[in-house]
Design a protein that fits this description.
By secondary structure, this protein is of the alpha+beta class. It contains 16 helices and 20 strands. It has a seven-stranded antiparallel β-sheet. Strands 13-12-11-17-16-15-14 form a seven-stranded antiparallel β-sheet. Helix 2 packs antiparallel against helix 3 (about 50-75) and helix 13 (about 360-385) packs antiparallel against helix 14.
Length: about 500
């Protein structure tokens, strides 16, 4: 299937693409008009006037479904003159042209629906692309794998005509990480359950906000009276409610971990990392080594105790490209971390000098953040709950302890090739940045920093910024000058 003639013929997507496009269109329509549908169902028996809602729903359906069908009919893709060409649009026609030698990664994804049809979505990443808009919504899994293999083979460096060619042996793929069931359970138990509760609470508020103006006043009154009823409830009820919330949070965390990391695999595949997995929707990402701008890994207090980390491969690109390309890898053993970090950079085993930030960081944060916020909260509590306004004062020691921990735990190490930052309050957060990945260095000073010969140093990369706050001005200028020299004298590009 990997021959040029096959891909030169303009091709449609598979029939599954039409189902996927229609499904997305219907789902988007339902998300948009579900309050109207709820209003129609709720008031149908009361008024009996449903005709206008039916016509409204019919009109919206036509406006949504017809463009979806046209998108499928007028979509074509093919390869011509070393370029991948994607044509789409019935009235507003659009042509996307991607040179094969510029395509750095080809990603294959399978949602639950696509898996039913043995089809896959395939997307392409090129340097400097503003969006991951070059994609094919559905082709057969066999054809998707063949297209990816063909494109990546064509994008390999070409040999010079007339020169002797060395016989290269393809490097076999090597699986470096594949979490088991036990690892997933540990990840679930040690997850940030407050985040899960926040998602649940946000969903409940969003649902309430949508139905508040539609349903009868009884539901609204029940929501408004709920806090008073809880305040009058017994301690046993409140404790039981908290336990229930804890169980729900753990359950949500477990479901999220299994959905994301079930059958997860990290494979070293020549040019980069091939990463894929998922319980319902599966994804296969190919992150080229050269695309990675810096590494970062973190662990909360529990995960640090069992040497579990979440490693982020921060890749170059615009915001939506970075979101698509940034991969979170669950590190389930301390020995795996250096294996995955090695293609980017390996910190030397020798003992390196550690540098910290200045104590002025704590004083300025207390003065500029902690005290104003504490005063504002106390004032608000005084007008809302006069007898409990003093509770706002508890924020001050919290802020002081928080900033002191940041100051004590923040350290950075320098080598001739890279910067490593270690921080975190109770857990750990490490950043590894190679100097040649830096595009710009900025030394910034507030008025206070100018008076005390301090500075904050910003390293700007194609994947985001890395910051060294509140170091001496002398250190900041010395590091800046060295980094600029290193970048200008290196033959290795940032991408």
């Amino acid at each position: 299937m990997n021959n040029n003639k096959l891909w030169q013929e303009p091709q449609r997507q598979s029939a599954a693409a039409l189902i996927i496009i229609l499904y997305k269109a219907v789902w988007q329509m339902l998300r948009t008009i579900w309050p109207i549908l709820l209003l129609w169902v709720w008031r149908k028996s009361a008024t009996g006037d449903t005709e206008r809602y039916q016509w409204m729903a019919l009109g919206i359906s036509v406006l949504v479904l017809v463009p979806a069908v046209l998108r499928f009919i007028f979509f074509r893709f093919y390869i011509q003159n070393g370029q991948l060409i994607i044509k789409q649009g019935a009235i507003n026609k659009k042509i996307i042209t991607l040179p094969l030698d510029k395509i750095q990664a080809v990603h294959i994804e399978q949602s639950f629906l696509l898996r039913l049809f043995n089809a896959a979505k395939i997307s392409f990443d090129t340097p400097g692309s503003e969006k991951m808009e070059a994609r094919i919504d559905a082709i057969s899994m066999e054809k998707a794998a063949a297209l990816r293999a063909f494109i990546l083979d064509q994008s390999a460096p070409a040999t010079v005509t007339g020169e002797p060619q060395e016989t290269t042996v393809p490097i076999p793929e090597r699986v470096v990480l594949q979490p088991g069931l036990k690892d997933l359970l540990k990840l679930s138990i040690t997850n940030n359950h407050f985040e899960a509760l926040g998602l649940l609470f946000g969903f409940a508020l969003s649902l309430y906000d949508n139905v508040r103006d539609i349903v009868s006043n009884q539901l609204t009154q029940w929501f408004e009276q709920l806090p008073d009823e809880m305040a009058q409830s017994s301690a046993v009820f409140i404790i039981s409610l908290l336990l229930l919330l804890a169980i729900v949070a753990v359950f949500i965390s477990t479901v999220r971990i299994f959905l994301q990391y079930f059958n997860y695999k990290v494979t070293e595949a020549g040019k980069g990392w091939k990463i894929g997995g998922g319980l319902i929707s599966t994804q296969q990402r190919l992150v080229p080594f050269t695309k990675i701008q810096f590494l970062s890994w973190r662990a909360n207090w529990l995960r640090k105790k069992i040497n579990f980390f979440i490693l982020h491969l921060n890749a170059a690109g615009a915001e939506d490209v970075k979101k698509k390309m940034q991969v979170s890898i669950p590190i389930t053993s301390a020995s795996i971390l250096p294996v995955i970090a090695r293609p980017y950079y390996q910190m030397p085993d020798t003992q390196l000098t550690s540098y910290g930030i200045q104590k002025a960081f704590v004083y300025r944060r207390i003065l500029m953040v902690a005290i104003p916020v504490t005063v504002a909260v106390c004032v608000l509590l005084y007008f809302a709950l006069t007898e409990f306004f003093w509770l706002g004062l508890l924020l001050l020691p919290y802020f002081i302890f928080n900033y002191w921990l940041v100051y004590k735990k923040f350290e950075f190490k320098l080598t001739a090739e890279a910067l490593q930052i270690n921080k975190g309050k109770f857990g750990v957060h490490t950043i590894l940045l190679k100097w040649i990945k830096v595009q710009q260095v900025q030394v910034q000073q507030s008025l206070y920093q100018q008076q005390h010969q301090l500075a904050t140093l910003y390293f700007i990369t194609a994947a985001g910024n890395v910051v060294l706050p509140y170091i001496t001005l002398q250190e900041a200028l010395a590091i800046k000058n060295y980094v600029l020299y290193k970048v200008e004298s290196s033959n290795e590009g940032w991408l």
